[in-house]
Amino acid sequence: MDRAILRNIISELKTEQLEQQDILIYLLHKVQDYYESHYIPPEVGEMIAEELNIPPSKVYEVLTFYTMFSTKPRGKYIIRVCTSLPCHVPGGREIVEYLKKKLGVDFGETTKDGLFTLEETGCLGLCGVSPVIMINDQYYGDLTVEKVEEIIESLKGGDAQ
Questions:
Q1: Residues annotated within a binding site for [2Fe-2S] cluster
Q2: Annotated binding residues, as ranges?
Q3: 119-143 tens-digit pLDDT
Q4: What's the CATH code, domain 77-156?
């Protein structure tokens, strides 16, 4: 990422009258969205620290605390599977097993083609329509293995959901 682009993003955030600590989180979201691989490279984390005049350790602390951020490249589609009890009981376990087998990856891994990253998450707040997954910013509920298979095949075919 070019430093000028980073400064422009920071400037936009500062006009929103955010607190310094809030700017960091918003900035990390925007920077991560800038990269097709949905991550923040270490050198960009260093640039962020310099531009915000905060220690690099503070940037790294936030990057590693929140699960929505990543310091390593991820797939085009990030599949977050709710593994809390309300999703686990009505078929969530079967969905997890299916996804791991279908994609050939475990939680925290990315498919060889770079298309999918599988992540485990806690409650997504949609217990009434469990089991639930989130792919990038889209939620899917009332899932079965068959419905998940349709979603995955659709994404593989280029039909973004």
A1: 82, 87, 123, 127
A2: 82, 87, 123, 127
A3: 999 888 888 888 999 999 899 999 9
A4: 3.40.30.10
